[in-house]
Amino acid sequence: MSKNLVIVESPAKAKTIEKYLGKDFHVLASVGHIRKDTKVDVEHDFAVTYEIDPGHTKVISELKKAAKAADEIWLATDEDREGESISWHLIEVLKLPKTTHRITFHEITKPALEAAIRTPRTVDMAMVSSQQARQTLDMLVGFDLSGVVRRKVPGAISAGRVQSPALRLIVEKEREIEKFGEKSTYKVSGIFGSDETFDATLEKSNLASKEKAAALLESLKGSDFTVSALDFSEGIKANPVPFATAALQIEANSRLGFSSQTTMRAAQGLYQAGHITYHRTDSLNLSDQALAAMASYIKSTYGEEYLHTRHFKTKSAGAQEAHEAIRPTHIEVESAGANDFERKLYNLIRSRTLATQMAPAKVAKTTISLTPDANPNLNFVAKGEIIVFDGFLKVYGKSKDTELPKLKKGDKVKASKIVARQTFSKAPARYTEGSLVKKLEELGIGRPSTYASIMTAIQSRNYVKKGEDEGKPRDVIQITLQGNNVKDEIVTEKSGATKGKLIPTPIGELVSDFLTDHFEQIVDYGFTADIEEKLDKIAEKKLERIKMLHDFYTPFSKLIDHSSFIERYNSARELGKDPKTNKPIYVKIGKNGGFIQLGDNEKESGEKPRFAPLPNNADSKNITFEQALKQLALPSLPRSLGKTTDGTEIIAASGPFGPYLKAGKYNIPLGNNDPYTVDFNTAKSLYDKKVSSIIADWGDIMIINGAYGPYIKGPGRRNNIKIPKDQDPKKLTKEDAEKLLGKNSSAAKTSYTRKSTSVKKSTKTRKTTTKKTTKSKK
């Protein structure tokens, strides 16, 4: 057995580190957190109760065994607060001394690991305390507030401390776009010259109408153009700065089309394999060793004239200069990564890092002013730019030369074509994942380690969706002067593209409005940023965790207490009365979006209402009464499609959760099939597929072969558990299934008990407070 035991988070990281440290070191992985927080006691200084994750029992057993046999133990989890917390949990669970070696490193290389071994420290309890404070806040806000949101907002799933302000940003941007009043003007440009042609644009050419644009072109018939001014200048293109986490996500989204989650997953793989430095950082610092290595590489590869060494200082107040920006560990390695995502991201990181240490690009700029003889008050401007020295552009960025002909002042040129084209003012741009991360960073909301999870949360809860529309054709008026002829025509262009843009769903808008109306503090940008600063202060030993939590939770709990008096948000909008039945027609919002309802709810009217889906390309905000009538005129649902050979009747239906088939005791989602037009054969194939997926059926408990493998479905909703690979689903008895579901219930407590226990505890506290208040009022 090796004398030294090193514990890291992931097996991939363990494998890389063991390769560098040699035979005297045995490296094992904790596989993430080994304990889960299951309860927060708000009445006793927010004491947290932890439980061992059942999925880590075997891992902990192996770690304990290895720890007993080792002479020295080194905790080498990630260098951020989450990593520090994992190390502390390892000390607690494995019963290690408080003086156990804690080592950190920015990159997984032999020199970095050896340097870390030479300078160990102990676990930083201030960082652990900051992580605990963040986790406690997220539990209290997420779990207490999620319960309120689920009760009060139709279709809502949850609310979070950081995801909610992010959602508000997206909703506010959508409202800006809806209020935007589009205007059109005409911009004039032309092609000039004979042998060497060039483009020039009319200055201040925002002509308000087609008539004015046509009149201007008429006035230029047969006119010569005089070079009235020439301007020559030199400039430089500034180098980019190194990547911090947010900038990496923004650039990967812009250049590679990667989501934040894809970027961070690829970066994690590159870091754990030793190809890049730690990927969760807000530092722009580059180590002296890295700078020296890059200087040597740039000189030998491109020449000394391309080298320009730079040192960067981080503007972020919370950043730690001891950390580094994201860079390759070996700059001379041109390609790295286990898959295409990693290889593309590595190439982006490497080229960006090299560009920071290269000379700026030098450009020669030319500006030519042309005045028409027929109308000297007009001025056409042509701009050219030539790269004199490419500098960092050799490895990063694109630049295209725009060369103008050599002219002198007073020269005459002809216009081969002049065009006045209708242009439309642009509405505010929707956020992409990249631009939203940038905005959150500007506002001080979230931290490098949280941006990806924020993007995932708001989309997985169906509060935000990514647009897929490439844009729709739009008619544009174009007036052309060619020779002495002026003609106008209609051309088309695409507009309104939403592909890759973040668009709030109707449910997302409801949730955001509800929180803004009743929990304004939670979605306030300044307040959320202030919380992040306080968490930084806890890590810096400038603020006590308990004081910070008390200051936050006291007013927050009062808002939660008061929420019982808030009426449920009514998403219904009455469109009118049905001319046949005189029943009201509503457009409503449910879990899966908008739908049409004919008649009041059954509790109010005593009879079931009819439902119909929204028409294609319509949403709950813009559907008209006429459209709703057409949808309701579709075949009445539920409708019987026929019976199978086993006598089961298949019924097509639609409800607040979407279209489905009712077949005996099974409710089968219809997916993309329309319940109004689906035929019996299509429905029967879905039914047969459902029946064939049932491995065992004991009524309230079933074993089903799902898309991701066999699983057990228990009583109630969301009571499922995947069957372990070492167990044959066909041989499981009902008792076996019940045992696994029982374990799943225990695991759910560990994974999600933060929700139930926190809410339960908080509810208990709130009840007590309410009773006392009521008593005092009496």
Strand order of the largest sheet: 12-9-10-11-8-7-13-15-16
Distance between the first and last residues' Cα: 72 Å
Estimated helix fraction: 25-40%
Mean pLDDT equals 86
Structural class: alpha+beta
Strand-residue proportion:
15-25%
Please tally the β strands and state the result: 29
- Describe the main β-sheet briefly: 9 strands, antiparallel
Question: What is the 3D shape?
Answer: globular
The gyration radius over C-alpha positions equals 32 Å
Low-pLDDT sequence parts: 317-321, 746-778
Number of helices: 21
Description:
Helix content is 39%, strand content 23%. The protein has 21 helices and 29 strands. It has a nine-stranded antiparallel β-sheet, with helices on one face. The chain has a four-stranded parallel β-sheet with strand order 2-1-5-6, sandwiched between helices. Strands 18-19-20-21 form a four-stranded antiparallel β-sheet, with helices on one face. The chain is α+β, with helices and mostly antiparallel strands. Helix 5 (125-152) packs antiparallel against helix 16, helix 5 runs parallel beside helix 17 and helix 9 packs across helix 11 (340-356). Residues 317-321 and 746-778 have low confidence and may be disordered. The relative contact order is 0.10.
How would you summarize the topology of this molecule?
Elements: E1 4-8, H1 11-21, E2 25-29, E3 35-41, E4 47-52, H2 57-69, E5 72-75, H3 81-94, E6 101-102, H4 110-118, H5 125-152, H6 163-179, E7 184-192, E8 198-202, H7 210-219, E9 225-237, H8 245-256, H9 260-272, H10 288-302, H11 340-356, E10 361-372, E11 380-389, E12 412-413, E13 415-424, H12 433-443, H13 451-460, E14 464-466, E15 472-482, E16 485-495, E17 502-504, H14 506-518, H15 520-523, H16 525-539, H17 545-562, E18 573-577, E19 584-590, E20 593-598, H18 602-605, E21 610-613, H19 625-632, E22 639-643, E23 649-655, E24 658-663, E25 666-669, H20 680-693, E26 694-697, E27 702-706, E28 709-713, E29 720-722, H21 734-777
Parallel strand pairs: 1-2, 1-5, 5-6
Antiparallel strand pairs: 3-4, 7-8, 7-13, 8-11, 9-10, 9-12, 10-11, 13-15, 14-17, 15-16, 18-19, 19-20, 20-21, 22-23, 23-24, 24-25, 26-27, 27-28, 28-29
Helix pairs in contact: 3-5, 5-16, 5-17, 5-21, 6-13, 6-14, 8-12, 9-11, 9-13, 17-21
